[in-house]
Amino acid sequence: MNIVQQKVIDLVRTYKTRDPRDLAEMLQLPILEIPLPNKFRGFLHNSEDNAAIVVNKSLTERAQRTVIAHEIGHYCLDPEFELCMHLADKVRATKSEQRADLFAATLLVESWKGESWEIAEKYDLEEELVVSVMKQLEYNDKKASAAL
After folding, report:
1. Domain of 118, in residue numbers
2. Residue 46 and residue 13: Cα distance in Å, rounded?
3. Considering its fold, how many domains does the chain have in total?
């Protein structure tokens, strides 16, 4: 288990929820649903005085849940960032974006048993996120095994 997964487990134990909207409320992170250009799924605005998650109003509820969980990941894992954008182009090149994806998936998925499409369907997630995180988890497992 890595630090991202442990952070999620700690939050779930503390707040007794995996629901991203409930968790955002408990963390005092307002969620603003506003129309955004199609390429923007959402973002986290984080300043010294306040923080808020902005999510594209045109997204499905499934996509909004994923974006909110992803932005909570940035809030918890990268508090020094003032603005974290979640773009629709699916590019996850930076470690920060990969960690936020892992955070979101760990928050939303209780069991990784099954095929990616089964997990996506069971937890009402986009399959692309599930596949991406499964690859990341597999890489981390191989890396840990190699270190032994």
Report:
1. 3-147
2. 24
3. 1
